[in-house]
Amino acid sequence: MRSRLGQHFLFDPSILRRIILAADLSPDDLVVEIGPGKGRLTRMLSGEVKEVLAIEVDPSLCEGLKRELSDAHNITVLCGDALKYPYHRLPPFKVVANIPFYITTPLIFRLLSEKERLISATLTLQREVAERIVAGPGGKDYGILTLMVRYRTEPKIAFFIPRGAFVPPPEVDSAVIHMRMLARPRVCVSDERLFFRVIKTAFSQRRKMIANSLRPLCRGIREVLGEAGIDPGRRAETLTMDEFARITELIRKQGGGG
What we know:
Helices cover about 35% and strands about 20% of the residues. It is of the alpha/beta class. It has 2 domains: about 5-180, 3-Layer(aba) Sandwich (Rossmann fold), CATH 3.40.50; about 190-255, Helicase, Ruva Protein, domain 3 (Orthogonal Bundle). The strands form 2 sheets. The chain has a 7-stranded mixed sheet, with helices on both faces. Helix 1 crosses helix 2 (about 40-45), helix 4 packs parallel to helix 6 and helix 7 packs across helix 10.
């Protein structure tokens, strides 16, 4: 393991099989595997789908994968950064990944930006991040990540993995989460960029009342909240996605958002 890359390898075939089952794969699928590591899951995936594109950022691991998997006709190993890969050039694809902890959130957002191509993502990540993704309003886990992921996907935790299953073991437990892309976003907004800005601004000071945290976006924010039927004394973590959408539309109508 190179600790700077946050690599923790899974070798247990029963756990790898559960990941494949959680990914809901079919024989015609193209699967992008991010962080294939030693290639155990890569080879198992190749027996289930039409094609596997394995993207590995570690040069030494990548060269080893090319040698180890050279006999597999439907595996392409690419040495490179998954955050920079041009996914828009691919046909519709599914992702399976054991995500290095240090790029978890950036990679999730990068994948979600490929809404025209991505079918689903099955990710092994920190348990606390998975719990944030599926959290409901009102708790400390509910926040920007929750709303950004649920806006475009239907996420569910498939199962948990104890830290001892990895080599070397990380300091935290992990979870496998399956995120199925929705045919259309969960709420209808006329300005997505403003919608995301409202959410990020609201949670940037989550202990403040929503009327105060959103004031930089709209001088008449109390009137907006009143029209939306939202108590200005509430905090961001109590608002549903529908309520954030209503706020966004009213701010837009008033010419707010900067």
